[in-house]
Amino acid sequence: MESKDTVKLIVDALLEKKAHDVKVIDIQNITTLGDYFVICDGSNPNQLDAMCDEIEERLYKAGVTIKHREGHANTGWILLDYYAIIVHIFSEEARAFYGLENIWRDGTFVNPADL
C-alpha cells in the first residue's frame, strides 16, 4: 500500500472519531524519518484512545504493520509509527505545548480533503 493511501485511511479513522484540527505534513523532502506526519488532538483521554484504536483496527485490516506505539492517552500524547507515516495524537494542551506544526513547518502541509 502506498504511503498516501495509508495516510487517507488514518485521516478517515481520525475524522470518524471526531479528531480536532487534523494536519498532514509531507516530510519526504526534509528528513529521512518518513514520508508523512499526521497530527491531531482530542478533548479527553477516552477520545484519544478511541482515535488510536480506530487507526490500529483499520490499518490492521488493510494489512499495514505498525512498527512502534508509544505514549498513553492519560499522558496526552500517543505516537503510532507506521514506518513511513508517524501519527501524533495529542490532548489539546500537549499539542499546544509541543508545537510540532511549527517544528516541521519546512514540510509541505497537505489538505486532508485532497487525499
What this model shows, in words?
This protein is of the alpha+beta class. It has a single domain (3-114), classed as Beta Polymerase, domain 2, CATH 3.30.460. 37% of the residues lie in helices and 30% in strands. It has helices spanning 3-16, 45-61, 92-98, 100-103, and strands spanning 20-26, 36-42, 68-72, 77-82, 85-91, 108-110. The chain has a 6-stranded mixed sheet with strand order 3-4-5-2-1-6. α1 (3-16) runs antiparallel to α2 (45-61). It is globular. The mean pLDDT is 95.
Keywords:
30% strand, alpha+beta, Beta Polymerase, domain 2, 115 residues
Our count of helices gives 4
Question: How many distinct folded domains?
Answer: 1
Reported for the largest beta sheet, the result is: 6 strands, mixed
Order of helices and strands: HEEHEEEHHE
Taking all Cα atoms into account, the compactness measure Rg is 13 Å
Give the distance, in angstroms, between the N- and C-terminal Cα atoms. 14 Å
CATH superfamily: Beta Polymerase, domain 2
CATH topology-level fold name: Beta Polymerase, domain 2
Adjacency order of strands in the biggest sheet: 3-4-5-2-1-6
Pick out the low-confidence regions. none
Please report the total strand number as a whole number: 6
CATH class, named Alpha Beta
